[in-house]
Amino acid sequence: MNVEMSIEQVAADQQLERDAPASTMPTMIEDETPYLRWFERVGLWVPSVLIALSSLIMVYAYLGTPVLDGNRGLTNLTESFGALERVALWQRALWWLPGSQDDGRFFELAPGVIAWSVRFSFVMMFVSQAWAFWLSRRGPARPLWQWLVGPVVAHVVMLLLVPTNADVFFYEMSGDLAANGINPYVSPLMAFPDNPLLAYNHWVEMTAVYGPVWTLANSAIMGIVGPDPVMATVVYKVLLGAVAMALAGLVYWFARTLTKSQPLAVGAAVLVAWQPNMIVESTGQAHNDPLMLLLSTGGIFLAVVGGTRAIRGGLVLITLSALVKYVTLPLLGLLGLVRLLDRRRDGGMRRVVGSWVLDGVAIVAVVAAAFAPFWAGFGTLTEMFLEPGRLYTNPLWFDPYLVLEWLFPNRVSRIFADVTRVGMQLVTVGIIIVVVIRFGQTMWNLGVRPTDAERRRNSVRPLLVGWAVILTALALLPVNSHPWYWTWPIVPIAMLVAFEAQSETSSATIKTGAPALPRWFWGYLVLTGVMSVAYHTRIVHL
Question: What's the half-sphere exposure (Cβ side, CA atoms, 13 Å) at 143?
Fold first, then answer.
């Protein structure tokens, strides 16, 4: 694959500006205020220390949960016996940490203190992300590793975070069952009361809800580690934290290849690596979303740098990501439609349709191979189809629901819940359909451009926009949404911001000291931060 040739085709009209050495690129606003100069003067070490300290505060806030007081405290920590068991497990495991007591518990904090400590931690982590990103676009050039020190230290600290969510224990137990020859898509967890992992699970009546690629990975991990809840959880934390950092590295490579700009590539990697939910939900809570994002991002990257010749490889990677979590299925449609760029080449639409058929064969082969060890009829997919309607957690809808429940009779809030549950699913599906149709129209129209280079160059931005809109809608709109879902949009948004920035004119860069950001960008970061704080700091009882 000739990557250099491909990228020159992608952005040939920007070549002179992108190839300008970093030293010739203005990085300072001529009329900066002393306030802005102070942020640049203190450098990167301050946000790096801030994100690490914020992580440590969160660790101790969670460890301070009183496990013998019932469900007094934050929802995720005390809402069930399983949640309290998870806290107690981690308190016992960290007996060596300052603050531990002789009886295996930790010092106890009031629910309000815990909530405000966690709120402060999240706010400071989002401030750190914004600060680091701002510096990446304005401050002096630094090697990538310096930008990753803060997130890496935060990940190490997050190894100590209480696994408040039961998902990692679901991974462990379903993987343990699979490693011992039991099909987790057929047998629910509660069928194995003697399993040492059962007590820490919440959805004990469920069979496996994740894709077979993830179940196979769970089986491999648990076959090596065994059903020790502490050891297994630490292993998942380490592996998924490493995957999150690998994702940031892939984003850097993608952006650097696409824009040929070190500062823009660093900025994209910073947005991903410093994203608080990416840190908390990978190493902190051991969710599998970074792996799904790594595979799907690799698929998009392959298609962009390799053109239509590499689309099938990109489709295979996205299929593998959907076999972790099926949220990336719509991306298969986007990549498939990129083939319309070739409709005026030799063979025309007959060639395009033939390629689609081979693409479908490749996708079906991957799906069949992944499901082969577990397939037990269409009932294998039952829990996956039920997942979107299982919970009502999105702060955008759940918090208004609580207000309605407080102000009006219960039937009002129930109607609101029913309407938003169905309505947001329909809106999300509608957005995806519109995006796919418009993207297809764009690819069809680009197919008449005279040169392959022009067709491909003009297809990149629509692909990035479609990618970003689809994952943002899936993450933020449905009522069953969680902070680990909110890691999904940051990758395409980081890529879109970098790509848009390299299209800025030289005069705009000189005037502002850095390429302009889309108007919605800071609003998106603030919204994600507010939703994260609201989700994580709900109190069951004071």
Answer: 3
